[in-house]
Amino acid sequence: MSPHRSWAALLVALLGVLAGCSADEPEGEQPTATIRFASYDFSENEILAAVYAEAVRRAGLPVSLQSGVGTREVVQPALEQGVVDVVIDYLGTALQFADRGAGAGPGTPADLHAALREALRGRGVVVLDAAEAEDQNGFAVSTAFAARHGVTTLSDLVPLARGLTFGGPPECRQRPLCLPGLQAVYGLDFADVRNMPSRSATVEALLTGHVHVGLLETTDPRLSQASVVLLVDDRGLQPRENVVPLVGAAVLDRWGAPLADALNAASARLTTADLIRLNRAVESEGLTPEQAAARWWDAA
Asked: Would you indicate the residue range of the signal peptide (predicted)?
């Protein structure tokens, strides 16, 4: 099955899931009577969706939350087609996808925000305020590997790469800010690439030596808990990745300023340090994303 057809099939499945979630609504109500949040299929984005959904809920608006729906290739078309209403994204990666790989560039958050608004203009999606909180792709090695080979930057991997194994999520093979970017910007061509089912599995594989380099986000709480270290992106592959809410224009028209104000208030408060603490609450303390989000808002 081609990637296009597989994404289309997943979108159809998503439509069925969301239709099922709205089955209990009163007769005569449409699914848009609830503001439908959807998250990507990794933990931090599930947390962010819960944080922003809680802001809207506390503003007195009706919310439903679908966690871990799928990759960007599934969720973004769902947002543009009105299948979901709110997605919490990251500036540079969102722009890269919206521009169909044209490249986010090294601009400031304000530059990227303006470019993203322009890229989504006419697609029925509104870009609200970006947060100070930021999470970029990071590439980690074990501290033992770093010490043994004297590496601190991604450029230091160049003479080693052909003897190394890389570990990351399956989509890393196609994403321009992951393996294709590492090859294009740094000339890194690894001997082997292994799919990792989770970030915790990536850390374990780094520590046991099953992989030598692995994808870990820069806000991953395991970076302060395990013997792994991020390598410096010394050639600037990664763009700025401030957290940003993307909202369907139709739902924003319906709910107006109360919805926009609640989402913008969440962005105004959220810092990178907050995001690390929220990740730690879920990954290390065992809270659900919803519990972590509620505790964060209660501490406001």
From this structure: 1-23
Strand partners for 243 = 90
In Å, what is the CA distance from 64 to each residue of 37, 67, 254?
A: 6, 10, 16
Summarised one tens digit per residue, pLDDT across range 94-148 is 999 998 755 566 789 999 999 999 999 999 999 999 999 999 999 999 999 999 9
Evaluate whether 291 touches 49 at the Cβ level (below 8 Å): no
Query: Does residue 136 contact residue 238 with C-beta atoms inside 8 Å?
Result: yes
Q: Given the structure tokens 């709205």, which residue do they identify?
A: 22
Nearest to 229, CA basis, from 173, 124, 147, 160: 147
Which residues neighbour 171 within 8 Å (Cβ) at sequence distance 6 or greater?
Answer: 71, 73, 178
Domains and CATH numbers, the chain: 3-22+30-134+240-298 (3.40.190.10), 137-230 (3.40.190.120)
Percent of the chain with pLDDT over 90: 82
